[in-house]
């Protein structure tokens, strides 16, 4: 197994930069991956292989945010056409359309799939009741610049938002009030809430920081050799991956921040990275218009990857070609 090289699976299909991606939980049909792109055509894929399943057609501008609910039955997207849409992820049918007054940068489902959280460039956050879509959404104001991203906490009673005003804020859903504010030295570039709700991963500048998601105290912070646009923590909290302006994918030790490995595969800055729910792979989206899937353990037989020797690269090449052909 020595000297195996990382051979990412390249998922083509988008014609503009890929700016956000999100995995579903593990379902009876495996797990799924949705990507948001400036081409306005969010795509759904099988998570472990990258195989294209379908494209959600209907937005009239760049799509900045995308989310799947836990069982991958619904998808949500936010776009530059000032709308957030909810889709049937099985049929691809548009179910609901929510108008905003500016570009929608972020969307997230509550864990019970009953509510949709949106963040927009009008500095406002909204929660829509998907069972009563005709009702006015609940609004949350306080940020002084565009919302970058926002996520529900596990119980749905609170949510967390990151903004270009250099803050990460925590909100109470019922009262509508701001509970806590974390000030950063520069604009946050990404926000991830760990799957069990215990850790918040925030990137800004060259730094990836990890916070206790209940006490809002910083646990650790590590600097990378480039501007970091996104980071994701492995489900076992053993490592984290990140990507940014130098086109590389980095893997670091979560305890020490030491670099484990780095790979160059994209031909443009990396905008988004996420670990799969089983931790076997991580996905990245780039300015080059592609998604790539990377093995957490290089050389392991998983999905389209076959366990091979260094001189026997054809299996990975064939797998890569298969994904490209699908898209």
Please state the overall shape, judged from the principal axes of the Cα atoms.
globular
Instruction: State the separation between the terminal residues, measured CA to CA.
Output: 31 Å
Q: Major beta sheet, specifics?
A: 4 strands, antiparallel
Percent of residues in helical segments?
under 10%
At the first level of CATH, the class is Mainly Beta
Instruction: Write out the CATH superfamily name.
Output: YVTN repeat-like/Quinoprotein amine dehydrogenase
CATH topology: Methylamine Dehydrogenase, Chain H
Structural class: mainly beta
Mean pLDDT: 93
Any guess at the CATH architecture? 7 Propeller
Rg, rounded, reads 19 Å
Number of strands: 28
Outline the low-pLDDT stretches.
309-327
Largest sheet, spatial ordering of strands: 1-28-27-26
Count of alpha/pi helices: 1
Q: Which strand-content bin applies to the residues?
A: over 45%
Pfam family, one: WD40
WD repeats: 56-97, 97-138, 140-181, 263-304
GO cellular component, one term: SMN complex
Keywords: mRNA processing, mRNA splicing, Repeat, WD repeat
